Amino acid sequence: MQWARWLVVFTATLAACASPRNAVATKELDEVRALGRRAWPEEGAEVTRALLTQLFAPDASVRAEAAFALGVRGDPSAGDKLVYLALDHHEADRDALVRARAIEALSKLDRPDLHERVLEALDDADPRVRLEAAQGAGRWPAQPGVVNQRLIRALATEKDVSVQTYVLYALERRKSEEALDAFVRFASSSDAEQRIFAVRGLRASIEAPAARDAAVRALGDADWRVAYEATQSLSASRAAEAAVALLEARSQANPHVRRGAFEALATSVKTIERGGKFEALDMHLVRALWDHSSSPLRSDPSSSVRAALLTCMLPVWGRLNLDRTGDASFAHFPLSIAAFEPSIRNDVEWIGLAHGLAASNDPNCVDMLFALAQRPGLALRGAALEALAKHKSELTRAFLIKQLGDADLGIRMAAVLSLTEMLEDTDLDALARCFETSRGEGGPEVRFNIVKLLPKFGARATPLLTLAARDEHPFVRRTARAELEQLGMSAAELDALAAQVAPPPQRPPAPLRFERRPRMKLVTSRGELVFELFHDEAPEHVANLVELARRDHYDGLTFHRVVPDFVVQGGCFRGDGNGGGTWRGREDELPHEISPRKYVRGSLGMPRWDYVNSGGSQLFVAHRATPHLDGRYTIFGELREGFDVLDQLEVGDTILDVVISE
User: Fold this and answer.
1) Using CB atoms within 10 A as the burial measure, which of 135, 193, 390, 545 is most buried?
2) How many CB atoms lie within 10 A of CB 153?
């Protein structure tokens, strides 16, 4: 396919750009990359000026790397020179890759005045430049008008499959209702990723008959990823026809699609329009979901599907309870943990129940969540606490406040996040105690999220913010400084606080270097995945992965997160996504090594929290191109064998072994 061929060419071009032609270029590229990874605005004008100078270096690979680095840093003052480099009709760079990197950088800057200039690049002669202009538009606020219309016009004349795909991505990301005709047309494209983005785009107009019909047809797509996205688009419809189609999709062969059908029903059944079709549908749901002996809760082999059914069951049952009160044909089902014990097999399914309880209006659901929050599994406890955020009450708030003192920092994190909409003036002391005692692995993320809550307390939070501005972690300090600025603290006072922070200790160098790109065989309970590792682009990440593999760190760990048609994620020693660390220790974090490489199907990426330099032992693999991750998350490998295994992985599947070879 043209798209696949173009990706190979584009990736090869980027690799060539990252493989300098001589020693001078090698040194300059290394310097430019190092500058691009220095944080803005902490390291501001001087670093930006150095990168701007490199925009005019003799070697095109250096110019391209400098442009990309300016985009990663995001200093808006670089915009004017980047416009000159990419768009000046007489002086723009002759190298198309340099122009592409400049357009990519421009689209990332917080400069709305530059958006129309970026869109001019949709007319560039080179498809790489047009692609970056299209992708860039997907980064901007989703407002209708000029941007959407310009993208639609470009799509009408664009011949390159790859550019078409990224225009569809941008229109979908912008929730463009104006692009309905284009989405319907491309929903039957011969290219699977075009169909994916087109079907995702239908959601913005799903009540239009043409959109709903196209989404229903997509449920039968040969590519499970397209069919899954159809379930998610139909979840937004209030029409009973959509719910009927989703019920039929529960019998699909692919477990991701079955899971998606139940996820979508959990949303759509709460909002479908009333009428004769609903009266027929409600009892159909009862029989299909749990009354019948062949209910998926009893018969489906996939825990992910059963978990999704449990998530769906509670809000549906709550609605039926309300609508059919007094109906002798409808037997009320009293909710309790004991009632579900015979049917639920593992924590994956209990977590599905917790998600359903979050949306339930049953009076017993809060007590059930309290019980789940005290079970042994960390992932289950965290899910139960997060679900309690949907049930605001004094009792719930008191329970969550108590969890701020839990011995496990992952549980504290879940409690902090769940308290966001429940905090009262009296809770500041509890947050302060949690902040001061959350140390070690996971502590920085807990402290960061507490700092984000402090504006609710106004000037009363100044002492805690002042403490946070001297925190050992740079991102906690940065966030606290921003909040203190909002409270009126002067720059001189803030600088004085920063001066009290001890410099970070020296990190030992990465232990391994390679002559050529190594391979990683990831042996799972579903089969083997073979990756090529990009040590030349992300040496710290590859060395960390290889060293951990040699210590058997990954053996026996699970894939704790699978989002169909997005990513599979694993490598957390805790099993809940809060476990990290590197070969240096569990409190260590990897600095980012973001490159111009695009996320494609099979890309191996590094998970992180809000802090860009917080990589660790986990990893994720993309099901498809994920343009919104490009330039934000480090890519350090790519799948070469085992795509069928990637598609089969579900939550709870196990990593059996990791084998490295050169």
Assistant:
1) 545
2) 12
Reported as half-sphere exposure (CB side, CA atoms, 13 A), residue 361 has a value of 9
Distance between CA atoms of residues 206 and 618, nearest Å: 37
Which residues on neighbouring strands pair with residue 659, listed in sequence order? Answer: 521
Taking only Cα atoms into account, the Rg of the chain, rounded to an integer number of angstroms, comes to 26
pLDDT score for 3: 44
Amino acid identity, position 256: H
Beta strands in 485-588 (DSSP E): 519-524, 527-533, 559-563, 567-570
Structure letter (DSSP) for residue 653: -
| Alpha carbon distance 475, 473 (integer Å) | 6
Distance CA 36, CA 612 (A): 13
Beta carbons of 526 and 653 less than 8 angstroms apart: yes
In the block, tokens 């979508």 appear at 264
Contact 195, 218 (CB under 8 A): yes
Residue 465 has φ and ψ, to the nearest 5°, of: -65, -35
- Other CB atoms within 10 Å distance of the CB of residue 340: 16
Q: What is the DSSP letter of 569?
A: E
- Which residue would you say has higher pLDDT here, 343 or 469? 469
Provide, rounded to the nearest whole percent, the portion of the chain with pLDDT above 70.
Answer: 89
Torsion angle, alpha carbons of 464, 465, 471, 477, to 10: 170
Tokens of 20: 């300098």
Residue 25 has pLDDT above 80, yes or no: no
Name the amino acid, one letter, at 574: R
State which H helix or E strand residue 604 sits in. Answer: strand 603-605
Question: What backbone torsions phi and psi does residue 584 show, to the nearest 5 degrees?
Answer: -80, -20
What's the residue count for the chain?
A: 662
550 near 559, Cβ under 8 Å? no
Q: Which pTM value belongs to this model? A: 0.92
Question: What's the CA gap between 384 and 370, in Å, rounded?
Answer: 7
Helix (H) or strand (E) holding 242: helix 240-249
Q: Residue 596 and residue 635: Cα distance in Å, rounded?
A: 9
pLDDT for 281: 57
Whether residue 238 is predicted with pLDDT greater than 80 in this model: the reply is yes
Strands of the 635-641 sheet, one edge to the other: 559-563, 567-570, 619-622, 603-605, 635-641, 527-533, 519-524, 655-661
Q: Which DSSP string do the residues of 617-652 spell out, in sequence order?
A: S-EEEESS--GGGTTTS-EEEEEEE-HHHHHH--TT
Helices (H) and strands (E) in the chain, counts: 32, 8
For residue 291, the 8-state DSSP code is I
Give 294: exposed, middle or buried? Use CB within 10 Å, 0-12, 13-18, 19+: exposed
3-state SS assignment for residue 398: helix
* Two tokens, residue 13: 């071009």
250 by Cβ neighbours in 10 Å (0-12 / 13-18 / 19+) ranks as buried
